[in-house]
Every structure is written in C-alpha cells, then in structure tokens.
Amino acid sequence: MSLRPNATSSCPSASLLRVLQGLLLLSLLLTTLVPWTAGETQSADKKRFVELYCMCLKTVSGIHPSNIQNLEVLSAGPHCPNVQVIATLKNGKKVCLDPEAPQIKKIVQKILESNESTA
C-alpha cells in the first residue's frame, strides 16, 4: 500500500467502487438541484397540495350576483368533507360562499342552468 496520491490500486474492484460512489453522489446532487434550477417556486409547491385540505374555513352567506366574475364548486371528498363554493369577484378577490345559504343555492343553480343552455 502506498501513500502516494497518484498510486494505482492493485484491486480493480476498488476503483470501480469509487466510480460508483461518485456517480451515486452526483445523481443525488442532481436530483436535489434540478427542481431548484428549473424555476419551481414555493407557490408551485403550494398549488400542488392545495386540494389536500378545506380551502373554505369561513364562508359568506350573502353576495350580489353582479359582483361575481367566476364561480368554482368543489365537491366533498377525501381532502375536505364539505362542499366548497369559491367565488372570484370582479375586483379579483376570492370569497368562500356558504353552499347551504338559500341565496347562494339560487346563484349556483342559475349558473348551472346557463351553462347547460350554452353547452
């Protein structure tokens, strides 16, 4: 055994082992760096897990339909036991609506009927 830095090993499997260790280290490094360098932000991670919990913790029972730009109805499922109605207002703000409120039921029904007639 030699202490020289350029000494060659008499065992070819030892050098193969070093190469494999180096490749493993390089692959681990690349798998951790690629998502970071690909521009994945924290908001993309949040969007990925957005359906794993109830989005609507507080609801509003009254809102004028003319203020609603878009309406999204999320059915109950493993992520949330409640039906969720999310309205995007014309000012860009998102509001959770109470799906049991009579006024909200009417708004959802009108939108569903208008979608059926246009489809």
Structural description of this entry:
This protein has 119 residues and is of the alpha+beta class. It folds into 2 domains: 11-40; 50-118, OB fold (Dihydrolipoamide Acetyltransferase, E2P). Helix content is 42%, strand content 14%. The chain contains 3 helices and 3 strands, in the order ααβββα. It has helices spanning 12-37, 42-48, 102-118, and strands spanning 68-74, 84-89, 94-97. A 3-stranded antiparallel beta sheet has the order 1-2-3, covered by helices on one side. The longest helix has 26 residues, at 12-37. The radius of gyration is 28 Å and the shape is rod-shaped. It starts with 11 loop residues before the first helix and ends with a helix. The model has no long low-confidence stretch (mean pLDDT 77). It is found in: Secreted. This is C-X-C motif chemokine.
Overall shape? rod-shaped
Measured distance between first and last alpha carbons:
81 Å
- Share of residues in helices: 40-55%
Number of helices in the DSSP assignment: 3
Q: Looking at CATH, which topology of the largest domain would you report?
A: OB fold (Dihydrolipoamide Acetyltransferase, E2P)
Q: Strand arrangement, largest sheet? A: 1-2-3
Largest sheet: 3 strands, antiparallel
Average residue-wise pLDDT: 77
Overall tally of domains: 2
CATH class of the largest domain: Mainly Beta
Note the run of SSEs as H and E.
HHEEEH
The parts where pLDDT drops under 50 for at least 5 residues are none
